[in-house]
Design brief:
Helices cover 52% and strands 11% of the residues. It is α/β, with parallel strands linked by helices and 366 residues long. It is globular. Bound molecules: ligand LV5NTVZW and (2R)-2-hydroxy-3-(phosphonooxy)propyl hexadecanoate (NKO). (2R)-2-hydroxy-3-(phosphonooxy)propyl hexadecanoate (NKO) is lined by residues 5-6, 9, 52, 90, 111, 114, 117, 120, 162, 166-167, 232, 340, 343-344, 346-347, 352-353, 355. (2R)-2-hydroxy-3-(phosphonooxy)propyl hexadecanoate binds at residues 5-6, 9, 52, 90, 111, 114, 117, 120, 162, 166-167, 232, 340, 343-344, 346-347, 352-353, 355.
């Protein structure tokens, strides 16, 4: 069943990528329409992953936030800041995007390597996702250009920034705390030292386009260590997300003040994590939007469309095909499975980059 789900996701994703490619001529004729169409096509891919989390694995996602901020969610453009400790944190982020109706349009400042991942990376190209090489000298120009393009985006979007720049490991934490010490900044226990350049440039260039920063902190109950493979195997997790809405006007315009502001924010985030580790929950009320049926319906649609004919073809092959045809089919299925495994491995922290493993200029990717 899991293999079926994987094959369905992969084939449907490639079909959507092809449809996205077909929208290329439209960009020249009606750019805003092309963007809207691509948001819907992207929804077809992302919502299948969300359906796996919400409906297949039954993972519960609880939102802690204040009732005054809640009505803004999904109704405005926002920059989302999130801690980067978990292999499925992006998927939990997508779940909230889905529940607030911004899944198809949501953006991220992503490492360039992800642009080459089939289905998701190729989809992102048409969503005008901002990519970076994590080398500021090379990134500055392209990141600014990509941000400028979002100024007239026709749909509400959330722009996700993992300011730590890489996923938390003990080694990366130790090194980043050495950097903090050298800079005279307080040490953090649960976060890596945030990289400030991406945040400051995003705030600077999206001012007037986004209205708020959503300071978000994610945790899993009972020290669960969630993985994408766990989700695919139907394992249920319990995610807690704390979100604080900060109006963009309250963030300093000056670059060094903005950087200081971000460091202070991470110190506050660290205190919040300490509270969570002591009490097992975040402070304040929970206001969790319910899961919507659309992700499930979209997933079932693709299963209905693809898996039944796929099974029929396979059965016919094994019944009437020559030994050569059967062998070729088995090899193709094996290659497809390897492809999916490789995609899943992109989410695994122990296969992550070496970025942040070395202090200073030499912290490039592996
Ligand atoms: C209501 C509900 C609310 C919320 C719901 C939650 C979420 C949903 C939202 C949206 C979902 C949308 C999409 C999600 C889908 C998928 C996402 C998946 C993955 C993609 C994520 C990634 O790829 S993360 C990696 C790439 N992104 C980033 O790195 C962003 C952060 N980085 C930066 O901003 C960097 O500044 C940079 C990349 C722009 C540039 O990198 P560079 O390395 O060149 O950085 P700096 O110039 O900043 O670094 C040099 C300075 O850093 C100091 N230094 C040196 N070594 C270290 C070290 N080890 N640790 C810390 N600091 C270090 C050095 O001294 C320099 O200091 P300066 O003072 O000179 O700046
Ligand atoms: C049933 C369906 C099976 C299909 C599985 C498809 C899986 C596709 C996953 C694609 C990858 C999505 C994004 C991964 C995000 C991520 O976690 O990136 C890590 C970066 O932030 C930081 O990288 P690093 O420096 O290595 O920590």
């Amino acid at each position: 069943m899991q293999a079926f789900a994987e094959a369905g996701e992969e084939i449907s994703g490639l079909i959507v990528n092809f449809l996205q490619l077909c929208t290329l001529p439209l960009w020249g004729i009606n750019k805003q329409l092309a963007r809207k169409v691509n948001c819907r096509l992207a929804y077809c891919i992302c919502s299948q992953m969300v359906a796996l989390l919400e409906w297949w694995s039954g993972t519960e996602c609880t939102l802690y936030t204040d009732p005054e901020s809640y009505p803004f969610y999904g109704k405005e453009n926002a920059i989302v800041i999130l801690n980067h400790n978990f292999e499925i944190d992006f998927l939990c982020g997508w779940t909230f995007c889905e529940r607030f109706g911004v899944l198809g349009s949501s953006k991220v400042l992503a490492k360039k390597e992800l642009a080459y991942v089939p289905v998701i990376g190729w989809m992102w190209y048409f969503l005008e996702i901002v990519f970076c090489k994590r080398k500021w000298e090379e990134d500055h120009k392209t990141v600014v250009q990509s941000l400028q393009r979002l100024k007239d985006y026709p749909e509400n979007f959330w722009f996700l920034l993992y300011c730590e720049g890489t996923r938390f490991t003990q080694k990366k934490h130790k090194i980043s705390m050495e950097v903090a010490e050298k800079k005279g900044l307080p040490k953090l226990k649960y976060h890596l030292l945030p990289r400030t350049k991406g945040f400051c440039v995003t705030v600077q260039h999206l001012r007037g386009t986004v209205t708020a920063v959503y300071d978000s902190t994610l945790n899993f109950r009972n020290n669960q260590i969630p993985t994408l493979t766990g989700v695919l195997n139907g394992k249920k997790y319990n995610a807690d997300l704390y979100v604080r809405r900060i109006p963009l006007d309250s963030i300093p315009e000056n670059e060094s003040e903005c950087a200081l502001w971000l460091h202070k924010l991470y110190q506050e985030k660290d205190e919040l994590q300490e509270k969570y580790s002591l009490t097992g929950c975040f402070p304040g009320p929970t206001l969790t939007p319910p899961r919507r049926p659309w992700a499930l319906l979209n997933w079932l649609f693709w299963i209905w469309l693809l898996l039944f004919p796929l099974c029929l073809i396979l059965l016919q092959l094994f019944h009437s095909g020559s030994a050569f045809t059967v062998f070729t089919t088995v090899v193709l299925c094996f290659a497809a499975s390897l492809g999916v495994r490789w995609m899943i491995s992109q989410t695994e922290i122990n296969k992550g980059s070496s970025y942040g493993n070395k202090e200073g200029q030499l912290n490039n990717n592996a």
